Amino acid sequence: MIKDCKICGISDPDILNFLINHPLSPRFIGFICNYPKSSRYIEINDLKKLLSVDKKKSEFVAVLVKPENKILEDIKDLPFDYYQLYDCSPVEVKNIKEKYKKKIITAFTIKEKKDVNNHKLFSDITDIYLFDSKGYEKSASFNHSLLKDIKLNKELMLAGNIQFNDNLKKYEKIANFIDLSGGLETSGLKDKSKIEIFLKNMNKIKNEN
Fold first, then answer.
1. Strand, helix or coil at 142?
2. Which of 105, 122, 140, 162 could be cross-linked to 126 through a Cys-Cys bond (beta carbons 3.0 to 4.6 Å apart)?
């Protein structure tokens, strides 16, 4: 059952303000903290300025790809509720969770069934499982049917080239949360009109549930 959404790759104060103050604001808002290959990456000083806001009902997510100690120390006092971790071992995730006292979204990049099964290694330490494509900074797809028989002990977030105007009903048997970034952009920039359509569609399916 779809409960809510995450809008990721926010780097612009105007868009952040739009999301936070929207009557249908997303539950999660994500920021790319340490992955310069992404056009949505934010330098630490800009990130600190961007996050000096009242986040209201939304929860902030630091997106981190195999983070080193320096970035973890740099962001430890920023108002993040979750760390979304890519390419970390179970031991690394456990250490980060315990040291920084954050909830964890463990991200799995999926190409085939064996990639899905990696979730079993993190069942005791993650708070939300995120299944994404192998695209990283590119908006790539994966076969969502690989998840149809999955049994999890935590909630599931789904990413991987989902578009702003997709029929969200096709994901409701798989996902609890839908995660969009590139699907809300025009020419590489977040598009308020696409965000508006997506948030209205999300609100509709939440109300149906």
1. coil
2. 122
pLDDT at position 19 is 98
At 84, is the secondary structure helix, strand, or coil?
strand
In terms of phi and psi (left: phi > 0; alpha: psi -120 to 50; beta: otherwise), the region of 199 is: alpha
Q: What is the CA radius of gyration of the chain?
A: 16
- Chain centroid to CA 7: how far? 7
Q: Quick one: tokens of 87?
A: 């390419």
Write out pLDDT tens, residues 7-31. 999 999 999 999 999 999 999 999 9
Contact predicate 18/191, CB 8 Å: no
| CATH number, span 4-208 | 3.20.20.70
Give the separation between CA 30 and CA 9, rounded to whole angstroms.
6
Which conformational region is residue 56 in: left (phi greater than 0), alpha (psi within -120 to 50 degrees), or beta? left
What are the helix (H) ranges across the chain?
13-21, 44-50, 69-75, 90-100, 113-116, 192-208
> Would you say the pTM of this structure is higher than 0.85?
yes
Mapped onto helix, strand or coil, the DSSP state of residue 120 is helix
